[in-house]
Each structure stands twice: as structure tokens, then as C-alpha cells.
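Protocol step 4 of 6: structure prediction from sequence.
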Amino acid sequence: MPKNEQPAMRRSGSVYRALKRAIIDQALSPGAKLPEDAIGERLGVSRTLVREALQRLNAEGLVELRPNRGAYVAVPSLEDGQDIFAVRNALEKLVVTTLAGRLTQAQRQQLEEHVAAEERASGNDGATSIRLAGEFHTLLAEMTGNALLVRYVNEVVSRCSLILALYGRPHSSDCAVSEHRQLLAALAEGRGEHAAELMGVHLEAIASRALLVREERDLGDLLAAYAREEGLTDS
């Protein structure tokens, strides 16, 4: 790859990650318009890079590209949600049965540290708590070493955040963290069937709980933090 293409690809990836985080954190609501010019101005990048990021997010089901109207955060139907959770349930049961009794000491430590971070965020920062909860599941998938499983789990976890934003009800994040601890214990003990049962119950609970209530905010303001994290602007 030519050297001059590498910085552009890195920045494109940064734009993609910033927008994905904003969607998963529900800073960008389902149905929100995603104007390329406004996003590019806020993130300090060209419309071309924004367009590339939006196309990636469209492929993952997080963004809808409407002909002659632009890009919008996807608005899945309730039926879509039921289908997505059914697929997620099957995928994540496969994840835990694969991992049960096979976690290395380093992996167990990483998961313990992640759950501890969830506990610290619980009750203090709703958006961070929600993001960490989803990352627990994608981290488990990554530990299987199965690239296809990682890809599909990442997609369904992200899309579930949109479903919950639209159709969920208030929930206690403390409950979710305790469920993660139970899953981790079952995996460490090598109890695959029990871990799969816990995962099924856990995902049913996720489907019945909601995410935090958000205020409508200016697009530039809500993207500012994500831009800073990705090093896209100095402001």
C-alpha cells in the first residue's frame, strides 16, 4: 500500500469508530440525520472520509443510506429486533460453550478487570456503563479466536443497542454486571451448559431492559468528545 494512503485509511477508521461509538452510546438517536458536511466539519475531515465511514456503518446495519436524502441512524422495527436477539442468543451461546474451561489466566484477568470497570461505571455514567456492557460480550467473542464469530457478534451487539433505544424500558445496570460475574464464574469452572443457560437468561433480560434517556443535542457538540478520543481535532 502506498505510504500516502495509510494516513487517510487511519483517519477513515477513526471517523468510523467515532460515529459507531456515538451510535452505540445513543448519543445519536435512531432516525437521526447524519449530514456528511456537518460531520466532516466537526471531525475535521473530508466528506469523502465521512462517506466511507457511513458506508461501513450501513453494511453493519447501524446506518441507513436513503437515495437522494442522505444517511440516517438506522431505525429497526420491533420485528427486526426479535430476529436480531434470536440470532444473538444462538451466537453468544456458541461463544460461551467454546470458551468454557479454556480461558487462559491472562484472559480471565482481562475479563475480571473489564467487569471491575463496569462496576465502577455503574450508577455514575450511563453511556459508559452501556458501552462497557456491550464490550464484555464482544471481548468474549474475540477470545474464541474465531474471526467470523467475532464479526457477527460485534454486529448483533451493536444493532441490539438500537433496538433497546427504541423499545426498551428502564433497567438497573447493577443487575447486568452481576450477570456478567456469574457468566465469568461459569466459564472459569468449565461449566459450558450452565454458561449457555446463563447467557440465554442474560440476553432475555437485556431485551427487556432499556438504555438511558437522552436529551436532543447539537450534532457538533455530541461528536466533540468522540473526535477528541480519535485525535481528529484539537478542540
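Step 5 (inspection) to follow. Residues 5-75+215-229 form a domain with the Arc Repressor Mutant, subunit A fold (CATH 1.10.10.10).
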